[in-house]
């Protein structure tokens, strides 16, 4: 089964609050997405367009993302402020379709939704966690009720702190 199916199939596996994002009027919050894996060179322009459509760049409030901003030997980190409902679904879907693991933090909006972390390790379902405004996983009362051992507790925090592998551009394979 390819990662597109794995990453997008079924409901979002979550230990985070089940608070919907996307009310009638969008709340705008900060977002950071860390992307790893190997991307075919012929797909790079699509990723750049998706990032720029959401006003994401390598620096907070930075210049538009370009090929010159690609990291060397580390994951790609894109950041943006004023992102509607803290959602970058198109980029997450692109990552799943192209086997690119990711870790995304979105800030919360008071009285609307809490900060969250969503990640995908390249296999299985996407996972969501309640977070704080610094991008750290937190444990809500509801989540604590699901923890049955100290091992579960450690796994909760370790999974939420996932860091994707370095991001690399590889030669196009021809489709």
Oligomer class:
single chain
Which strand order spans the largest sheet, edge to edge or round the barrel?
1-7-6-5-2-4
Radius of gyration: 16 Å
- Compute the average pLDDT: 87
Total number of helical segments?
5
SSE order in H/E notation? Answer: HEEEHEHEEEHHE
Which stretches are poorly predicted, pLDDT < 50 over at least 5 residues?
1-5
Proportion of residues in extended strands: 15-25%
Helix content: 10-25%
- The assigned structural class equals alpha/beta
Amino-to-carboxy terminus distance: 19 Å
Give a quick rundown of the structure:
With 175 residues, this protein is an alpha/beta fold. The chain contains five helices and eight strands. The protein has a six-stranded mixed sheet, covered by helices on one side. Strands 3-8 form a two-stranded parallel ribbon.
Secondary structure topology:
Elements: H1 3-8, E1 13-14, E2 28-35, E3 37-40, H2 44-53, E4 76-84, H3 89-97, E5 102-106, E6 116-120, E7 127-130, H4 141-146, H5 150-160, E8 167-170
Parallel strand pairs: 1-7, 3-8
Antiparallel strand pairs: 2-4, 2-5, 5-6, 6-7
Explain what this protein looks like in three dimensions.
The protein has one domain (3-18, 25-169). The chain has 5 helices and 8 strands; from the N terminus they run H-E-E-E-H-E-H-E-E-E-H-H-E. It has helices at residues 3-8, 44-53, 89-97, 141-146, 150-160; strands spanning 13-14, 28-35, 37-40, 76-84, 102-106, 116-120, 127-130, 167-170. The radius of gyration is 16 Å and the shape is globular. The two termini are 19 Å apart. Mean pLDDT is 87; it is low at 1-5.
